[in-house]
Amino acid sequence: MTASLPHEVQTVFDRFVTTEYTTIDRRGQPITWPVTPYYRPGQDAIDVCTGIGYPKKADDAAANPRVALLFSDPTGCGLDDPPMVLVQGAAKVDDADLDANARRYERESVAKLPATKEQLPPGFLRRFFTWYFARIYVYVRPERVYVWPRSDVSAEPELHGTHMEEVRSGHSEEPDAGHADPAGGGEAWDERMDELGQRYPRAVLSFVAPDGFPFSVRLPVSVDRSAHRVRLDAEPVGAPVQAGLACLTAHDHAPEFAWQRNFQVRGELVRDERGWSLVPHRLVGGFELPPTSTIARYRGNLSKVMRFRRIAKREVARRA
Predict the structure, then answer these.
(1) Is 126 exposed, middle or buried (0-12, 13-18, 19+ CB in 10 A)?
(2) What was the pLDDT predicted at 221?
(3) pLDDT score, position 59
(4) Which pLDDT tens digit goes with each residue over 54-111?
């Protein structure tokens, strides 16, 4: 369906450096990470990928192909005031030929982000980085596309989809599919949450909509330390917000992608007299390359790399 979308929407898919990719795990927990999208105007799907050492992004999509891609951070895309675009679609996982996928990834990633070429390890060391370069691709075929001109969540989004009754009404009319209810349990606070509202005045909220698809939107947020909650400082018009498991993801990167940072807070979306907020249950840090020295980056990621190598060895053996 992408060929029928407005040109500016296809340009967003093509030019954005990152997209916030959301899957739903077996517990019904939405999980959102920034990834690089690969797309050519008019093609059927928007492609993303993950390393064999951290395959959960693909495993969750294989188990539940209802996924979402949010294009909300225009850093480095070169577009003036682009819209925010949410894609809800069906995922297809491609792990049939990891070597071919690795070659494709090296070719496409350098073409899209030339500055990353300097960050690649020399060829004779690549065998130590199988966990990263052996790639699993996920092809996301759009079924419904929301567009917020000027990223204005206070305005009704434009809706493009395969169901004409939705396009006419401006709302999804899929039957309710159920979602994971609030799980309860203890609150968890991490000092990094204080970055929300400060370093990250806006973050990506993801939850499961009544039709079973993930729904994501970038909103202004603030920290309410006394209540141990992250407040949502805007309520998006047209978004089917409901109580339940949710994910709040913060990330940033250099325009040329020379560095990148990201983390997410998983918890429960609740509503009180002050509006919607997230009760945090767990903060999860991603694989980051912060704006520090190469040595500091290796030191900061060492434990993750060792874990990713163990997982990669297991995953490659399983596929063999």
Answers:
(1) middle
(2) 97
(3) 97
(4) 999 999 999 999 999 999 999 999 999 999 999 999 999 999 999 999 999 999 999 9
What's phi and psi for 58, nearest 5 deg?
-85, -40
Positions in the chain short of pLDDT 70: 1, 124, 162-186
> Long-range contacts: 290-293, Cβ < 8 Å, 24+?
290/259, 290/260, 290/261, 291/254, 291/258, 291/259, 292/259
Q: Which residues contact 270 (CB under 8 A, 6 or more apart)?
A: 182, 229, 243, 276, 277, 278, 279
Place of tokens 């850093």: 75
Tell how far CA 96 is from the center of its chain: 23
The pair of three-digit structure tokens given for residue 31, joined into one six-digit string: 């999980």
Q: How do residues 105-138 score in pLDDT, each as one tens digit?
A: 999 999 999 888 777 777 767 778 999 999 999 9
Q: How far is CA 94 from CA 61, 77, 315, in A?
A: 11, 27, 14
Whether 180 contacts 113, CB under 8 Å: no
d(CA 167, CA 172): 8
- The three-point CA angle 72-231-260 to 5° equals 40
Q: Looking at beta carbons, which pairs linking 130-133 to residues 24 or more positions away fall under 8 Å?
A: 130/52, 130/53, 130/309, 130/312, 130/316, 131/51, 131/52, 131/53, 131/54, 131/305, 131/308, 131/309, 131/311, 131/312, 132/51, 132/53, 132/308, 133/51, 133/102, 133/105, 133/106
